[in-house]
Amino acid sequence: MPLDPSYVGRSYPPTPPYLVGREKIREFAKAIGATDSAYHDPDAARALGYADVIAPPTFPTVVSFASNNAVVDDPDLAIDYSRVVHGDQRFQYTRPIVAGDELVGTQTIEEIISRGGHDFITTRTDITDTAGAPVAIAWSKLVIRGEG
Amino acid sequence: MDLPKKTYPVTRADLVRYAGASGDFNPIHWNERFATKVGLPGVIAHGMLTMALVGRAVTDWAGAPDAVVDFSVRFSRPVPVPDDETGTEVEVSAEVKGTTDEGHTVLAITATCRGEKVLSQAKATVRTSRLGK
C-alpha cells in the first residue's frame, strides 16, 4: 500500500541534546580519511576562529541519522526498514559543527511521493544548538522499495 | 574550469570503521550473507561514506575545511566493496559551474566506481575565497 501523503508536514519532538565530543569528531574524520588539521588539532581550529576542532561536512549525519529514527520508527507510517534505500542527501550549513556543541535535531516530513511501486519520503532535520540558533539543515530522501 | 581528479580507496575495514564512527550499523555494509539475501551484489559502502569522500575532495579543492555552504548528492548506484586487501576505489572529479548571488562557487561533481557513476546530481556550493589556491 502506498505511503499516505497526508503525513507531509508531520513533525517530531526535538531530540535530546547531542554533546559533540572532540574525540568523536577525530574518530569520524579518521574514519573518512580526512586529515585536515582543523578536524584534529584544537589550535589549528582556533587559528580559523573556532573554539575547538570542527567537524567535516557530512558529520551532521551523526545527529540527523539518529533523529531520522523518529520517522523510520513511526508506527503510523509503518515503514519496512529492510526495504529502505538512501536516495538523496543534502546539507545546508550555517556554520561548521564544533566540538563542545550541544545539538538538537527536529524532524519534519517534507515530501511523500509514490511512483513505480516505490515510495519516496523526504525528511528535513533542523539542527540547532540548545538555544535554538541554526547550525545546519539536513534533508534525506529515503526510497522504500515496493514488494516483488 | 576542471578541478584535479581525486581517488579514494575503500576497503571492508573502512566500512567497519565508518559504521562505528557514524552509528550506521546496517548489515548490508558488513554482512555478505545479509547483503546478498536482500538482492545486492555483496557488501556495499555506506552512501554517506561515499558522500564523505566527496566532501574531502570538495574541502581540498576549496582550500578550507569550513568552506562548504551547501552539499547535495543522489545515490544512483551502489559501491560494492570486495572482501580482499585492496577493496575498491571511488574517483571524484568536478567542474566549476558558476557563481551564486552571494559570490559562492558552485561545483558540479562526478563520482565513479569501476567506471560507473555512483552519484548523480552531486553538487557543492563553497565559499570562493581560497578556491584553487
Automatic annotation (TrEMBL), chain A:
Pfam families: FAS1_DH_region (PF13452). The lineage of its organism: Bacteria, Bacillati, Actinomycetota, Actinomycetes, Micromonosporales. This is UPF0336 protein Asi02nite_62450. Coiled coil: none annotated. SUPFAM superfamilies: Thioesterase/thiol ester dehydrase-isomerase. It comes from the Bacteria. Belongs to the UPF0336 family. Residues 8-136 form the FAS1-like dehydratase domain. HAMAP family: UPF0336 (MF_00799).
UniProtKB/TrEMBL annotation, chain B:
SUPFAM superfamilies: Thioesterase/thiol ester dehydrase-isomerase. This is MaoC family dehydratase. Residues 5-99 form the MaoC-like domain. It comes from the Bacteria. Pfam families: MaoC_dehydratas (PF01575). CDD domains: SAV4209_like (cd03453). PANTHER family: (3R)-HYDROXYACYL-ACP DEHYDRATASE SUBUNIT HADB (PTHR43841:SF3), 3-HYDROXYACYL-THIOESTER DEHYDRATASE HTDX-RELATED (PTHR43841). It comes from Asanoa siamensis. Belongs to the enoyl-CoA hydratase/isomerase family.
